[in-house]
Specification:
alpha/beta, Rossmann fold, 7-stranded mixed β-sheet, 34% helix
Length: 197
């Protein structure tokens, strides 16, 4: 059984999808803890699903390195097989990446390497793109530059707003995340082979 810590910054819609999938007795992975870099709404999912949750507020630390050290300590208490960044809107310090890699994956609302960064959906619309997508990657020290595990195209419709496009991408993102976790748990996807580690 693959044990997972999921890190979030917001409402945790991808996290909810993963929690719901893992309620199936046949699903070969379990979320053992939920973490956040702020007082995120998604932490409430821990209460709803009976999963321990923790918060390491970035603003409480002198610098990113100190915050990262505490975040890593919190994660390592759970000894997870995999750490999933799911809407975590903060770059992890290099020593956190080094400690967890390659068992550290991220969801991204674009067809990487197109539109990296925090405003991928807005950037796709601003560029006049006719298609974007969703990707699951292994995290490295770049900004959405890690090895791509799985991705899928999503069409940009003529009347799309940032919200409507984001919602359609999220549906694909959730499905890809669940499939990636399944493939990792079942040994069909080897993170070491897919990473630079």
């Amino acid at each position: 059984m693959l044990s997972i810590v999921v890190l979030i910054s917001g409402g945790g819609s991808n996290l909810r999808a993963l929690l719901e999938a893992s309620e199936d007795a046949e699903f070969p992975a379990r979320i053992v803890a939920i973490g956040a870099d702020r007082d995120a709404d998604g932490l409430e999912l821990g209460v709803e699903f009976g999963i321990p949750a923790f918060s390491v507020p970035f603003a409480s630390f002198a610098d990113r390195a100190a915050w990262g050290d505490e975040l890593l300590a919190q994660i390592q208490q759970w000894q997870p097989d995999l750490v999933v960044l799911s809407g975590m809107m903060r770059l992890l310090p290099p020593r956190v990446v080094a400690a967890l890699s390659p068992n550290l994956i991220n969801t991204h609302p674009a067809y990487l390497p197109e539109f990296p960064g925090a405003h991928a959906v807005r950037d796709a619309l601003a560029a006049g793109a006719v298609q974007t997508g969703a990707s699951i990657i292994v995290v490295d020290n770049g900004v959405d530059e890690g090895p791509i595990l799985v991705q899928e195209r999503v069409a940009v419709l003529p009347d799309d707003t940032e919200a409507s496009l984001q919602n359609r991408i999220k549906i694909v993102e959730r499905r890809l995340l669940i499939q990636a976790v399944l493939d990792i748990a079942n040994g069909h996807m080897n993170l070491k082979e897919n990473s630079n580690a």
